[in-house]
Every structure is written in C-alpha cells, then in structure tokens.
C-alpha cells in the first residue's frame, strides 16, 4: 500500500499539520509519499524529505499551484492517483477545500476528519459536533481521507532522508484565479499547534479589550483564540474562531474567558489537557468541562492574572 | 440568472443529541429538526442576489425523506421561488447528494449554486466541492463575501490564515461560511404565501443516480466524558494550581 499525503505549506515552510498527517499515513501502513505542489517551493520539499517516515517527496512547481486553488490542485492529484491507494491531507481549510474535489473526481467517498485509524479501511470520526463518534468502514478501493491533526502526534521533522522527485503539472483548468489575501500576522504561536491557548468570547465586549488577553498570552507564550460570537461581533478576525466550524485545538492548557461553552465551541477545545474557565456566571456550561473554574469578572481577573504571572 | 441553493434538514443546533444504547446511531425520535444553519445563509445569499437584480430566480432543493418538505417550505417562506425535493428514505452520503444535485443542475441550468460549507449533523464539509468537481465548475468554499460581475464571481474565503479572495469563472459553486450574511426570519405573511409555492418531487431513480453508500457505519458511540473539575476562589489559587498541581505553566 502507498499513501500520498498532500503537504500544507505557504511556498516557504511546511505547515505543522502535515507532520500529524504523516503520522496518520504511517498508521495506515505501507509507504508514505508527500506531494508538495506550489511555486518556488523546493525548500518545502527538502523539509518534507527530512520528515521521519516519508519515503518519497513529489515536487510539482508551477505558477498555477502557488495559491493551492482547488481546481488545479485536484487535477494534479488525480493525475497522480493511479499509483496510490490512499490520498490523505490534514483537515486544514486547504485540505478541506481540495480533497473532496479529488474524491468526487475519483468517484469515492471522502472520510472527513478522522481521529483514529482502526484498520486500513476502518476509521473513527466525530459527528454532531463531536457529541458522537462514528466508526466507519470504507468499501472504496481508493480512499480519500482528511485527518484531525490534534488526534495524531506530529511525526519527527528530522531523521528522514526521502528522495525528491519532480512531478509534472497537470493541464490548467482555467477555472479560478487568485486575487489577494489578507492574512493575520502574529508573533504568537499558531493556534492549532500552540501548547497554551487563551480564548475570549462575547464577554470581552470589544476588540480593544482583547489586549487584556494578549498580555496574558504573551507571558504564557500562548496563542489567542475566540468564540464565534467574538468573531461575528468583529472583535477579532475569523481565523481566531475555535469550534465545530472553526479550528480544533487540543493544547496542554486552554483558558476560556467570557465564553459560555456552547456545544459548538466545546467541539473545538474539549480535548485540551487542562481547561480553565473564567466566567462571571457560575451556571455557565463551560464550567462542566473545566478542570479549574473561576467565577469572576474578567475585567478584574485578567489584570490580576497578568500581574500574578510576573 | 438562476440560483440553485441546497437546504438540508438536520437536528436543530440547540439540541444536545443522544447516542442510541445499541450504538447504531443517534436517537432522532422526537428531536427538533431545522434547516442546516449554513443553508439558511445560502438561501439568504440567493435572495439578496435576486433583490439586487442580479438573479431572477432562486430555486431550493433538498435530498431527504418526505419531512424534508418542511425545510423546503422554510426556504420558500424566506423567499425562494420554488422547491425541488429529491425524496429518499435512505441515508445519502455527500457524494450521492452531489450526484443528485448535478442531475438537477443539468435540468435546471443554474448559473450559481450555493450550498452550506458543512452540515452540522455529519460534519462532512464535502458536498459543494464534490458537486463542483462533478460539474467541472469552479468552487468558492467558505465564502464570507460574494460579488458577481459579468461572467465571474469574486469570492472572499475564510481560511486558516485569514482571508483569501479568488475569482471564479461562472457557472460556479459557492459554499457559505458564517460571516457571509445574517439570514432573515420568514414573516407570517410570507409563511402563508409559501404554502402556495410549488415543490417538485423526484426520486434518485427518476434522476438515474446511484446513491448506494460507500461507507458502512459499524458503530456510533458517546465520546469520552470530561469530568467537571474544581472551583478556585481567586486568581492566586488558579495560578498556584496550574503551576503546582497541573504543571502546565
Ligand atoms: C452553525 C453554527 C456553527 C457554530 N460554530 C461555532 C464555532 O465554531 N465556535 C464557537 O465558539 N461557536 C460556534 N457557534 C456559536 C455557538 O452556538 C455560540 O453562540 C457561541 O459559541 C457563543 O459565544 P460566547 O460564549 O462568546 O458568547 P455567549 O454565549 O454570549 O457567552 C458570553 C459569556 O461571557 C460571560 N461574561 C460576560 N461578561 C463577563 C465578564 N465581565 N466577566 C466574565 N464573564 C463574562 C457570560 O456570563 C457568558 O457566559 C456556532 C453556531 C452555529 C449555529
Ligand atoms: N441531503 C441534503 N439535502 C440538501 N442539501 C444537502 C444535503 N446534504 C448536504 N447538503 C448540502 O451540502 C452542504 C454541506 O454538507 P456536508 O458535505 O454533508 O457537510 C450542506 O450545508 C447543504 O447545503
């Protein structure tokens, strides 16, 4: 069996989630190949070649792959698919965009966001915002899978010595073009791979007040997240959203501040090792999942926390 | 210009679902059902395009049992012009739904198809991308803004790093994200009017589509339960516990 893992990257560096995807691929058994498609991204391929467990890296460089637009990426993957039994990617927005298109072109089901490999054809995946776990068996000869990164350890970034081979580009579909991007810039760790995450909700009242949270985040080396309500209200950008329909995180420590704990939010953070909730409403459902609950006004508690962390 | 929107009947987002004791699935008896929230956003976007004079007709379609009629009625009450129910009592996977939608699209010839990014029951996040693939159309997933201009659609997408804007050749498939719009509520007069709007019924057989599942659900279980922990009285106590008990800071 050979598994093709689609690398997540920005043409400069390999996305952290790819390492988790490689681990899931390894658990399936067989050879693991990684596809790096982009433009001017040879350094990413070299990085992928060093990942432990990777046997081969395919490098497809072309201007049309620079922004990983789904139509051309899917065409490329389908052109390579004959040699593979499984095509797999991390369930990032990029993986979620591209892989279902690949699956449909191959006339197979996609198995979305698996959290466990039971056997090469059987997987566990969350449904209903993680309130139920389904064990599903695929009858498709070729499998297309996305992986929830937080449920698979990261493969070692070094230790491997895979060969890098050029893959030829597929025909340009001409269906979409890149116009621009507005990416959040931050010195803080990336939300989905941070060891500590501190998130704010509607209780924060404004974007300005997020500074209270950011000060604490910087002392802890934490990433900053948010509830949907905080994003909808415009306090913070969309990429801060943690939850069923945002990002899934599972850090060592998750601190929820002014967040009530709706099931859609819990879906994105309840696998965190230690959960802290700071909320002024002692009945807030977030306390039902919190290891440490502090009933307090966040405008008092956050400056105190900042102070206590020295 | 015609817009086709997909509406799925799902367990209401406020319901705390229960797993059946025999592990065969989720208990859906006497549970409140609603339109998938992302599909309300899809309907709303279609209506706004019609109100802006860009679209002339908004057609809603659903795949499901007879009861999915109610979801179509909700779409009609919001303002959609007519409905199409592809009736089946089988569970249809995203690939099957995409194939049924493709068959309907070939009859209806819409210029734009809007679906939700994700159904909140199966959490698949696949159908729109699959439909675009099967039709050979462009796709604008996780959209927070859609602007149609001549033969193209400019779509701003919510991605992991922030926002990305792309231009799609039309016809196109767009999937909605939460910030695309705020869906309207159906007014009472519109609910009454919707009763008279047509809903066309078809079956997968009528459309010549094979919807047999590719995945077999072996079991459905409750996730591991998280025990509630302790209450701390002060920030000082919290920091002490995080340092000395949990060892996480
Ligand atoms: C289709 C769909 C998808 C969704 N996806 C997501 C998702 O991915 N992620 C997500 O988070 N949500 C999601 N939601 C929304 C979810 O249902 C909740 O509405 C949302 O999580 C609520 O955010 P919140 O807890 O910040 O706000 P609220 O529920 O309003 O809670 C605010 C909390 O702040 C507390 N508070 C207020 N002031 C203070 C203060 N001064 N000090 C301390 N505490 C204070 C209050 O007691 C309250 O508990 C989704 C909903 C739908 C329908
Ligand atoms: N049975 C269905 N009937 C109508 N629309 C559906 C159905 N299943 C999926 N969809 C559409 O596809 C979107 C994504 O669903 P999914 O791929 O299952 O997460 C939904 O938001 C709907 O717009």
TrEMBL record, chain A:
It comes from the Bacteria. GO terms for molecular function: electron transfer activity; flavin adenine dinucleotide binding. Its cofactor is FAD. Gene3D superfamilies: HUPs, TPP-binding domain. GO terms for biological process: fatty acid beta-oxidation using acyl-CoA dehydrogenase. The keyword Nucleus does not apply. Residues 3-182 form the Electron transfer flavoprotein alpha/beta-subunit N-terminal domain. Pfam families: ETF, ETF_alpha. PANTHER family: ELECTRON TRANSFER FLAVOPROTEIN ALPHA, ELECTRON TRANSFER FLAVOPROTEIN SUBUNIT ALPHA, MITOCHONDRIAL. This is Electron transfer flavoprotein subunit alpha.
From TrEMBL, chain B:
The lineage of its organism: Bacteria, Pseudomonadati, Pseudomonadota, Alphaproteobacteria, Sneathiellales. This is Electron transfer flavoprotein subunit beta. One of its GO terms (biological process) is carboxylic acid catabolic process. Its cofactor is AMP. GO terms for molecular function: electron transfer activity. Belongs to the ETF beta-subunit/FixA family. PANTHER family: ELECTRON TRANSFER FLAVOPROTEIN BETA-SUBUNIT (PTHR21294), ELECTRON TRANSFER FLAVOPROTEIN SUBUNIT BETA (PTHR21294:SF8). Keywords: Electron transport, Transport. Heterodimer of an alpha and a beta subunit.
């Amino acid at each position: 069996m050979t598994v093709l893992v689609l690398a997540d990257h920005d043409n400069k560096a390999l996305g952290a989630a790819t390492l988790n995807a490689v681990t899931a691929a390894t658990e399936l058994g067989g050879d693991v190949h990684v596809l790096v498609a982009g433009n001017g991204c040879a350094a990413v391929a070299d990085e992928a070649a060093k990942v432990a467990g990777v046997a081969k890296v395919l490098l497809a460089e072309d201007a049309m792959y620079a922004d990983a637009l789904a139509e051309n990426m899917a065409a490329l993957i389908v052109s390579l698919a004959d040699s593979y039994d499984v095509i797999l990617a991390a369930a990032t927005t990029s993986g979620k965009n591209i892989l279902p298109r690949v699956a449909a072109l191959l006339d197979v089901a996609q198995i979305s966001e698996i959290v466990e490999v039971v056997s090469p054809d059987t997987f566990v995946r969350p449904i209903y915002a993680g309130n139920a776990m389904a064990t599903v068996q695929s009858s498709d000869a070729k499998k297309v899978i996305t992986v929830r990164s937080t449920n698979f350890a990261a493969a070692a970034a070094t230790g491997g010595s895979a060969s890098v081979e050029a893959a030829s580009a597929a025909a340009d579909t001409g269906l979409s073009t890149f116009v621009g991007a507005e990416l959040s810039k931050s010195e803080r760790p990336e939300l989905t791979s941070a060891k500590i995450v501190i998130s704010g909700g509607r209780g924060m009242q404004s974007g300005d007040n997020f500074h209270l949270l950011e000060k604490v985040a910087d002392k802890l080396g934490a990433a900053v997240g948010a509830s949907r309500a905080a994003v909808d209200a415009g306090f913070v950008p969309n990429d801060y959203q943690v939850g069923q329909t945002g990002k899934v995180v599972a850090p060592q420590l998750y601190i929820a501040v002014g967040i009530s704990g709706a099931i859609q939010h819990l879906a994105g953070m309840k696998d965190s090792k230690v959960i802290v909730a700071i909320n002024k409403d002692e009945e807030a459902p977030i306390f039902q999942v919190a290891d440490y609950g502090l009933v307090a006004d966040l405008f008092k508690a956050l400056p105190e926390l900042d102070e206590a962390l020295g | 210009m015609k817009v086709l929107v997909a509406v799925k009947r799902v367990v209401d987002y406020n319901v705390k679902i229960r797993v059946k004791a025999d592990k065969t699935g989720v208990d859906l008896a006497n549970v409140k059902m609603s339109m998938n929230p992302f599909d309300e956003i899809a309907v709303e976007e279609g209506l706004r395009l019609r109100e802006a004079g860009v679209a002339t007709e908004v057609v809603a379609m659903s795949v499901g049992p007879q009861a999915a009629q109610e979801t179509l009625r909700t779409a009609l009450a919001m303002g959609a012009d007519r409905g199409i129910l592809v009736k089946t009592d089988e569970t249809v996977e995203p690939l099957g739904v995409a194939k049924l939608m493709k068959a309907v699209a070939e009859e209806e010839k819409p210029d734009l198809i809007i679906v939700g990014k994700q159904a909140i029951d199966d959490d698949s996040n696949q159908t729109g991308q699959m439909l675009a693939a099967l039709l050979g159309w462009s796709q604008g997933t996780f959209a927070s803004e859609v602007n149609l201009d001549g033969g193209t659609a400019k779509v701003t997408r919510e991605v992991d790093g922030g926002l990305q804007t792309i231009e799609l050749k039309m016809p196109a498939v767009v999937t909605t994200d939460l910030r695309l719009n705020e869906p309207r509520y159906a007014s009472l007069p519109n609910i009454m009017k919707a009763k008279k709007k047509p809903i066309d019924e078809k079956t997968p057989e009528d459309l010549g589509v094979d919807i047999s599942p590719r995945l077999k659900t072996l079991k459905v279980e409750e996730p591991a339960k998280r025990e509630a922990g302790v209450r701390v009285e002060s920030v000082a106590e919290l920091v002490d516990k995080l340092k000395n008990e949990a060892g996480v800071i």
